[in-house]
Amino acid sequence: MKTQLLFLSCFLLSTLLATAQFNNQKFITYTTEDGLTDNYVVKIVTDTKGFVWTATRNGISRFDGLKFTNYTVDKPAGNGLRSSWITDLAIDKRGTLWASTEWGVCYYDVAADKFRYVNKMNDLVVLYKAPLFLQGDVLWVAAESGLKKINTITKALQATALTSLADPQCVAGDGENIWIGTRGHGFYVYTIASNKWQKVQFPALPANAHLMNFYNDASGFWCATSEGLLQIENTKTATLYNQSTASKPVDALTFVTRFAPVTGDSLLLCGSYNQRLAFFNKHKKAFTQVFTGSNTQLHGIPASPLHNAYANDQMLWLGSDKGLTMLNLQQQDYTSYLLKGSGEQYEKAIVKKAVTHPSPNKLWLMMNQPAGVALYNKTTHQVEKFWPCGEMDRKYKSFLPPSQDRFLLVHQK
Fold first, then answer.
1. How far is C-alpha 334 from the chain's CA centre?
2. Which of 37, 103, 348, 407 is buried most deeply by CB count within 10 Å?
3. CB–CB of 167/184 below 8 Å?
4. Whole-angstrom distance between the N-terminal and C-terminal Cα of the chain?
5. CA distance 366 to 176
6. What is the DSSP annotation of 225-260?
7. What are 100's strand-pairing partners?
8. Which parts of 261-314 are beta strand (E)?
């Protein structure tokens, strides 16, 4: 097939946007049948060596890409864990793994292959969850017995003036304050400099709202709640978002994060108890895409409440009641590319195939939506040229790079 070379202006090219596309992406879920210690995954982190650590209701699993190594209260013998009920994980800037458990907070001693606690048995009371937050060399832990801070260098545990918390679920900082979200008891805000605290209730939320997860970026301080996504400006002002452009209101949120290769700077990724993944557009102030675990477009995601997510580079990890789920963008038939800009027409761009270009920082993209061929700059994330198909409903199946100003394309018609 011969196509005419049509150069689109920079203005039109800037409207290209490949937003979060989970259509046709293949997810892989690992369960106890694959060696995971338990299918209820509450937290996922990766360390400096590339190991994936998961906190579960029955111990900690370490995944090296091939097999799982598990730590529970009794296996392997002498590993140091006081309980198999693991509530949170964190990796400090020195690469040390920290875990909160039913009987306190411990760190992983790599040389001894053992977990070591920094508190005595009764120093920390954990009824359900003790969320962790790292700030420099300080690890903050919120528990029913109050807000504590741990020096990650000396391993010393210190109490704060906030000596009691009701059902803490998440903890984060805004620089001056430590915020604690609870399940049904509002926010606690602790001011570091003064060692004082206050309870905060926003009019946008009912008093019994579940406050499940924080995310902080340049655009704001966000909290995933049972009522939707809350953007916090200060202790007096916050805005709740739960409207969707495509479906019913998005609520029962459990986490909010960013998956840069897919979301870019304009979108946030949220998970929920009701088996949904949703993308929130920060510019439109609305959820623009919603997917469910039972949707056939989400190959491999179990139909289950989603508890947490961890994203790094080209991989996204999800924790649920039914195991550890992975999305690897480098192992897909369809791949998502971030194309800078905005606009309605190309908000669901799908790339069928990427072909190498003589220049190492460029790619030829064969696109099914919009239909055509694009010359893509990997460094700037910009489309430098785009050659559209004359029939916009035509889907290409194969593509050979240009030779003598001609493309060879195979399509379905």
1. 20
2. 37
3. yes
4. 12
5. 48
6. ETTEEEEE-SSS-EEEE--BSSSS----EEEEE--H
7. 88, 105
8. 267-272, 276-281, 286-292, 306-312
Beta bridge partners of 408: 400
- Report DSSP letters for 305-368, one per residue: -EEEEEEETTEEEEEETTEEEEEEGGG-SSB--------STTTT-EEEEEEE-SSTTEEEEEEE
Task: Give dist(CA 109, CA 291) in Å, integer.
Answer: 40
Which segment of 103-117, 141-155, 270-284, 320-334 scores lowest on mean pLDDT? Answer: 320-334
* Token code pair at residue 358: 């003589």
Spatial distance between the Cα atoms of 164 and 182, rounded to a whole number of angstroms:
12
Structure tokens at 340: 């800078």
Residue 253 scores a pLDDT above 90: yes
Q: Which residue in the block uniquely carries the two structure tokens 């290409």?
A: 396
- Round the average pLDDT of the chain to a whole number and report it: 84
Secondary structure (3-state) at 205: coil
Residue 363 amino acid letter: L
Tell me the whole-structure pTM to 2 decimals. 0.78
Q: What angle do CA 317, 300, 318 make, to 5 degrees?
A: 20
Cα–Cα distance for residue pair 387/278, rounded to 1 Å = 31
Location of structure tokens 């306190």: 104
Please report the DSSP string for 32-94 in residue order: GGGT-S-S-EEEEEE-TT--EEEEETTEEEEE-SS-EEEE-SSSSTT---S-S-EEEEEE-TT
Classify residue 275 as exposed, middle or buried by CB count within 10 Å of its CB (0-12, 13-18, 19+): buried
Residue corresponding to tokens 């290209």? 16
The identity of residue 246, as a single letter, is A
Question: pLDDT band for position 203 (50/70/90)?
Answer: very high
Helices (H) and strands (E) in the chain, counts: 2, 34
With contact defined as beta carbons under 8 Å apart, do 104 and 86 qualify?
A: no
Cα–Cα distance measured from residue 378 to residue 363, given in angstroms and rounded to the nearest whole number? 7
The widest CA-to-CA distance across the chain, in whole angstroms, is 76
The structure tokens listed for 323 are 């195991």
